[in-house]
Amino acid sequence: MPPNRSESWQKSANQEGRIILALQAIQRGQVKSLFAAAKLYNIPYTTLHARASGRISRVDKRWHSHKLTTLEEDSLVEWILSLDSRGAAPRPSTIREMANILLATRGELPPPTVGVNWVSSFVKRRDELQSRYSRRYDYQRAQNEDPRSIRAWFESVQRVIEENGILAEDIYNFDETGFAMGLISAQKVVTRAEYYGRRSILQPGNREWVTAIEAICADGYSLPPCVIFQGKVYIAGWFESNLPSDWRIEVSSNGWTTDEIGLRWLEKHFIPHTNSRVRGRYRLLILDGHGSHLTPQFDRICADNNIIPLCMPAHSSHLLQPLDVGCFAPLKRAYGRFVSDLARASYNHIDKLDFLADYPRARIEAFKPQIIQNSFAATGITPFDPDRVLSKLNISLDITPPGSQPGSRPSSRSSQFAPKTPKTVIQLQRQTKLLNNLLKQRSNSPPTPSKTAVDQIIKSACLSMHSAALLARENATLRRANEKKRQKRTRSNRHIVHEGGLTIAEGLQLAQQPEQPVEENQVVSHGGGESANQADLSRTRAPPKCSGCGELGHRINRCKKR
Prior knowledge:
By secondary structure, the protein is α/β, with parallel strands linked by helices. The chain has 5 domains: 7-52, no CATH class; 70-125, no CATH class; 143-186 and 201-390, Nucleotidyltransferase, domain 5 (2-Layer Sandwich); 417-439 and 449-476, no CATH class; 533-562, no CATH class. 46% of the residues lie in helices and 7% in strands. A 6-stranded mixed beta sheet has the order 4-3-2-1-5-6, with helices on both faces. Helix 4 (70-85) packs across helix 5. It is extended and about 105 Å long. The N and C termini lie far apart (103 Å).
């Protein structure tokens, strides 16, 4: 049941309705005077006179506890939205600082300030704002999240599928993902109540890198992985870990993939495992722009085996690659959980054999057929739906609706006059001209249009002043950052040759000393003494070498054999 409304609330609501009716009757000329309207609608004359003079109702009136005026808050909201549209949403402390700057522009001494919790109350009463946690967003990704490039890529995918008659069962995606064997990410744990702060969790800490090459199909099938270890030789124990026989193991100097490994994976792993599953004539292989995927040998092998490789736009794998969207995240969470379990069991080192024991279990959780199919659907590839990706973009296109017409010119008559807040100098000049015409034509009628126009001009001026104050602060911050960059450019990059550490004073003293030229034919003495040590520490420049004849002692511009 709805709550019972008090008698005073109902009385005030009925009176507010009668006041609105009375003001409308006066404006339409149905009632000749305020006194007659007050008597007709049973309203106190003083109340009606105050409302007709421009006083707002008590319900719509702002609380006296608000530090900032409505115009100042509007200016602050506009500044916040401007920063948010540029990908630089401000922190609550920055908003509080800007609010204090607006209060300081009033000229009061001492200047008023807002409270510590003012920002949270401000965000709650403004429907345009919402506080959220931020996330890291790479600048290169933001640059390449252009709806036009993404839409062009989907058009190329659709064209390739239609021209070659590629079925969903012949669409594949492959990519590499890396692991630090003994590192786990932060996780939620349960600890004792009196513990303060984040709980430290022991982990093996082995940072040896291992790479896994994974490939999935749009119908839910996943190929056996290819694991790349850091090393130069293979260890027999790797192959005795009860792994499936169709898994592949490679080695490299740093645990990363190379061009040769990519070619061997394509020729000896991908093609044999997918030849028996081909439903049509061609296979579509979606991949990113990694260097090992863009070699001429890779393209030649694909062409010889009816494989069409299709590269995604740069820095867009988080949107367009099914493995990145749906599979790799649960894979790494599962592997991190297994490593954490080993750490709780007093494991202090995770080696390659431990990785080969835990990685198959992690793959079972991450590469389920339903997860793979959902990954292709989330990227808009199968079923083909580009809008699922385009709707996630942070960049929105500024498209003017077709057939839109500019607003009609306002009538000069007072009854049809509806002024708006000017946003530009031209709009302000037009409204000022219109205001002057209204003042000239004013007679005994109520000056409502003139007053409204004056209020809008004043509002526009206040908004400009508030925006100028906020922009002045932002420009000052940018100037300080530019000055800091200029000072960094002026610092010396001279090399100081010295054995052992240096204090700041010692380093400055050595940097201020003039640089001693070193002769080319200087002979370094290997005998004892201070001169020998200085000679050993000095740097000798190698003689120039001619790029034409290859002889030492001159450059090609002075070569006599040219």
